[in-house]
Amino acid sequence: MANTKKEDTAPETKGQEEELTEEEKLWGKMVKIRLPIVPGQSKQEALFVGVNTRTWVIPRGVETEVPECVVEVIGHMEEAMIEAAQYQEAHAKG
User: Fold this and answer.
1) Has residue 17 been placed in a domain?
2) Residue 61 class from Cβ within 10 Å (0-12 exposed, 13-18 middle, 19+ buried)?
3) Total structural domains in the chain?
4) Were 27 and a residue from 16, 66, 67, 75 both cysteine, which residue would form a disulfide, CB within 3.0 to 4.6 Å?
């Protein structure tokens, strides 16, 4: 048997890394989100999010590109709001 050299079967992008923007280098992968417009609310306020020393103001109803860490913070905020509502409901005096 002849010795055969194993060739790297990676895609053609070997040696070519995607160019990351400064934002992605600092904050990680960017993702697109759209905050819903809240029905019945006359004033649709943007959402303020802060992570470490950086802040974002995310408008409602508009697709916006933000780092994944911002999406994670928004998820934690929503969980906390649900827990607070459940607590209020369970401890409401009536």
Assistant:
1) no
2) exposed
3) 1
4) 67
The verdict on residue 14 lying in a domain is no
Amino acid at 72: E
pLDDT < 50: residue spans in the chain: 10, 13-16
E strand residue ranges, 4-75: 30-34, 47-51, 54-58, 63-67
Q: Report how far apart, in Å, the C-alpha atoms of 60 and of each of 68, 71, 72 are.
A: 18, 14, 17
Q: 80 exposed, middle or buried (CB, 10 Å; 0-12, 13-18, 19+)?
A: exposed
> CB of 58 within 8 A of CB of 71?
no
How many Å apart are CA 55 and CA 26, to the nearest integer? 13
pLDDT per position as a tens digit, 13-39: 444 456 888 888 888 899 999 999 988
CA distance 59 to 26: 22
Write down the pTM of the prediction. 0.70
Residue 50: inside a domain? yes
Classify residue 1: in a domain, yes or no.
no
